[in-house]
Automatic annotation (TrEMBL):
UniProt-listed Pfam families: DUF2231
Annotated ranges, domain DUF2231: 14-132
Source domain of life: Bacteria
Keyword Transmembrane set for record: yes
Lineage: Bacteria, Pseudomonadati, Pseudomonadota, Betaproteobacteria, Burkholderiales
Protein name: DUF2231 domain-containing protein
InterPro entries, A to Z: DUF2231_TM
Organism of derivation: Ramlibacter aurantiacus
Record-annotated membrane-spanning stretches: 49-70, 82-102, 114-133
Keywords: Membrane, Transmembrane, Transmembrane helix
Length: 142
């Protein structure tokens, strides 16, 4: 008698969790691009776009952080490398919050610190997204 094993998809990162992490990265990227546009054109509206995108990214990253904390608490959902993922996500959220405070100033006062913080948070969000999708998942052979 032949037995067929069904391939399981990863349960280490929930699909909604994946959408939150990837969405936060995209919003941080949008804020970086709007800061770069402001640096090139000095149109104040570009910093307004960044000021609007950063809180959205913080919301999505914060919700993803809650998912990560829930995965850290539940032993059967804990995967190898999730600790590093959680640390990068926390640092991303903290620097994103500081970036939101910097962008709350007027356009002239937000630059160049706002641009540098946007670039750093985008790189950290990309690293968190990569770590979230690349760590070894429990119960799934590679």
């Amino acid at each position: 008698m032949a037995h067929t094993l069904a391939a399981r998809y990863s349960q280490a990162i929930h699909p909604f969790h994946a959408v939150l992490v990837a969405g936060g990265m995209v919003l941080f990227l949008g804020a970086t691009l709007s800061d770069l546009a402001y640096a090139a054109t000095y149109h104040v509206q570009w910093t307004n776009f960044g000021s609007w995108l950063i809180p959205g990214a913080l919301l999505l990253t914060g919700l993803a952080l809650l998912f990560t904390l829930a995965d850290l608490i539940r032993v059967h959902r804990r995967a190898a490398g999730i600790g590093a993922y959680a640390v990068v996500l926390v640092i991303t959220w903290i620097l994103g919050f500081i970036n939101a405070l910097v962008h709350a100033r007027d356009a002239w006062g937000a630059m160049p610190m706002g641009l540098w913080l946007s670039v750093i948070t985008t790189v950290l969000a990309a690293a968190a997204t990569w770590l979230g999708f690349s760590h070894r998942h429990p119960g799934v052979p590679r």
